[in-house]
Recover the amino acids of this structure.
């Protein structure tokens, strides 16, 4: 069964600190993995998309890694800001999946001043 | 990238009534997706809407409850029918980007049924 699991479920850190969010998946055949940021009450916004051959991709202070062998991904946030408070969702797309996406439950990140 | 305008952004409705949510995309897209996000949870796909054909519904969702229209390649509507408090959720529409590798989302509709 195609699944995406994220950890931790929630995380509280102080402003300026770094953090790493984890994503494990069992989606097969794999097409790509995305990380989305979702502010409360808003639609998700894409941070990164990685295909099978990509190990790391950065978007400003966000750096995503992908290990296709172990089927793990991480999202590292550097020098956190209050505006980083949001849910971060790992989403995996399967090949031939008709654009359909398998969604993780998300990690709720709270940045405290 | 695609820009998706979704409305209304929020509504409070009486039980037993229906609400139609609209999504307008600024470019032509073959497929559009409708999601539901219940409080504190991730997104759940309701249905896939193709232009010119019936929408394809996921397990647990039926056309009578969530009728969908897709009159052209830039527009779709989702109706939440005969609402109950359990339908209180955020509803989101989505469209794939070029090559289908990206997914763009509307701003979401926060529905509260009282």
């Amino acid at each position: 069964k195609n699944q995406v699991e994220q950890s931790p479920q929630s995380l509280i850190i102080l402003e300026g600190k770094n953090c790493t969010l984890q994503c494990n998946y069992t989606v097969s055949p794999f097409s790509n993995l995305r990380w989305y940021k979702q502010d409360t009450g808003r639609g998700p916004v894409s941070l990164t998309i990685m295909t099978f051959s990509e190990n790391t991709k950065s978007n400003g202070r966000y750096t995503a890694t992908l290990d296709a062998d172990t089927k793990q991904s991480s999202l590292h946030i550097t020098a956190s800001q209050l505006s980083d408070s949001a849910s971060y969702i790992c989403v995996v797309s399967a090949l031939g999946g008709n654009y359909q996406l398998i969604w993780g439950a998300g990690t709720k990140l709270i940045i405290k001043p | 990238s695609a820009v998706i305008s979704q409305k209304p952004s929020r509504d409070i409705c009486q039980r037993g009534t229906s609400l139609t949510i609209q999504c307008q995309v600024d470019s032509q897209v073959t497929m559009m997706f409708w999601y539901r996000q219940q409080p504190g949870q991730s997104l759940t796909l309701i249905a896939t809407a193709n232009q010119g054909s019936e929408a394809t519904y996921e397990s647990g969702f039926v056309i009578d409850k969530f009728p969908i229209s897709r009159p052209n390649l830039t527009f779709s509507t989702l109706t939440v029918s005969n609402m109950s408090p359990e339908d209180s959720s955020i509803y989101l529409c989505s469209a794939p980007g070029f090559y289908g590798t990206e997914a763009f989302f509307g701003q979401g509709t926060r529905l509260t049924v009282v």
Remarks:
- The interface with chain B takes residues 32, 34, 41-46, 49, 51, 89, 91, 93, 98-101, 103-106 of chain A (CB under 8 Å).
